[in-house]
Structure formats: C-alpha cells, structure tokens
Design brief:
Blueprint lengths: L3 H8 L3 E6 L9 H7 L14 H12 L3 E8 L5 H16 L2 E6 L12 E5 L3 E7 L5 E7 L2 H17 L1 E2 L7
Parallel strand pairs: 1-2, 2-3
Antiparallel strand pairs: 1-4, 3-7, 4-5, 5-6
Length: about 170
C-alpha cells in the first residue's frame, strides 16, 4: 500500500480511530515554522495542503464511519502541540471527533509504544518516528492480540479525554 491510512480509510465501514502520543512531529515542517512566525488559519484561509484530508474525512464520515482521534500530551504543552490544537478546528469541521488527554492522566493506562490507527477493529497501522519526531515507517498488523490491545487502549483514553472544544492547552 502506498498510502495505507488513506487506503484503509477508503475501505473502512464502521470506525477509524487514531491515537497520537508524541509532543512533536516533523519539527522542521514548513507549516509549523510559519505558525511559529505568527501565521494563523481560519476556516476561510485554510491552505491547499489541507483540502485533500478534508475531502477524505468528509467522504468517510458521510458514509457513516465514526472517525475519532485522541492526542495524549505533556503539560505544559509543547509549541508543536499548540500548533496542532490551533489547527484542530479544521479536523473537527471535516467530521473528526477529537479529544485531548494530559499525559499525567494516562499513567495507569496500558498503551502501545507507538501512535496508531485502528480500522474497523481489525487492522492496526503503527506509525514509527525517529527521536526528532520525523516519520520513519509504518507497520501494519491484523494480529488479534495487537488489535485487542489497541482497541482497549483507545477506548480507555477516549473515555478519559477532553473534547477539543473544551480542552485548553496549558
């Protein structure tokens, strides 16, 4: 699969969940650097790079697939998490349900060691990153024990996380 997340989203029938647990991703990303320099987006000024994701999400959600994302974050939050929080209105407007969980609230939770996507409670994609937060590769599995761990971890985190509209980054 060339774009496994997009391909599995296109095939999803019921659910797609995404658990993010890093405090920084692609620190040299041009959009993040522009944000650090003061660029802010509104629904009317979202850049072109955003629209393909918006279209995918609206199509998936329009088919009745529930798309949820939780971000487990350290507090006080990093600049990168502030950037993500600032832009999350776009995810929500496309139809994603997004929640935030302070890392200290996750201490007693059994979580996989890597960020992941879980599609229809059957296929997991782990996203691997290097120490700088740059993506290195993906790992896809349908192993029932791994799927069960990810399903359980996401359900627990979701239950304790704060909806995007209510979460105020510290």
């Amino acid at each position: 699969m060339k774009y496994p997340v997009r391909e599995l989203l296109a095939r999803a029938q019921h659910s797609a969940v995404h658990l993010e647990m890093r405090d920084s991703y692609t620190p040299d990303d041009a959009e993040f650097l522009k944000w650090l320099d003061g660029t802010r987006y509104t629904p009317e000024t979202l850049p072109e790079w955003w629209w393909p994701w918006h279209e995918i999400v609206t199509e998936v959600v329009g088919r009745g697939v529930v798309l949820r994302r939780v971000r487990v974050v350290s507090e006080p939050v990093s600049d990168y998490i502030r950037y993500e929080h600032d832009l999350t209105f776009a995810n929500v407007s496309a139809g994603e349900q997004v929640r935030w969980l302070p890392r200290r609230a996750a201490s007693a939770m059994a979580l996989p060691g890597n960020d992941f996507w879980l599609f229809d409670d059957s296929t997991v994609i782990f996203n691997h990153f290097n120490g700088r937060g740059e993506p290195t590769d993906k790992e896809i599995t349908t192993d029932p024990s791994v799927v069960s761990l990810c399903r359980s971890a996401f359900a627990t985190v979701w239950e304790h996380a704060t909806p995007h509209g209510e979460y105020k980054p510290e």
